[in-house]
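Look over what follows to help learners.
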Amino acid sequence: MLSASLTIKAQKIIFNPQAGLYVTSIAIDENPVIESVGKAGFQIGFDARIGDRLYLQPGLFYTQSETEFKFKDNLGGEIVEGYTRSGLKLKAMGGFKLIDTNPLALRIALGPTYDFNLNTNGNSVTLKEDDFNNGTLNFDAAVGLDVSILSFDLGYSYGFTEAFDDNNLNLNPKYQSFYVSIGILIGK
């Protein structure tokens, strides 16, 4: 019983509110007719690091991004449509500090995330909000740098599930997201 209480007290918890750039595009299987281009958006939220050198990293972020689709028409021209997507990203990652010296830490984190689609709208004639899945399962990988009480993160998210609800075009569309954020470490 005493060793269990000592183990619980030894767990370090750091809260890390963050904000930054968030860019999302949709990866589409080889298709000469459709191209997806991500535009800069933003993310704001927090994560927690539970542990020390090896840690669990749950988090919750609000994201908003814009994606542009370029369709080639039958006359060789191009139709450009865009949409804005906002959502909640729930993270369940784990991390490891490669370098852990005070006040500097270099770390990596990997794990599953889930994006809840809150709203999708835009100037698209082809795609409507009902065409998008309400949520997608992803795998995220990130590298981060802590300097004193500041954190800097660079990450990539790849969707396991398809972006569209009814994909009758056989495009295998998956979200790809890149993010860069800065945060403050609380509890360090």
About this structure: Strands lie at 13-27, 34-51, 54-72, 78-101, 104-122, 135-147, 150-159, 174-184.
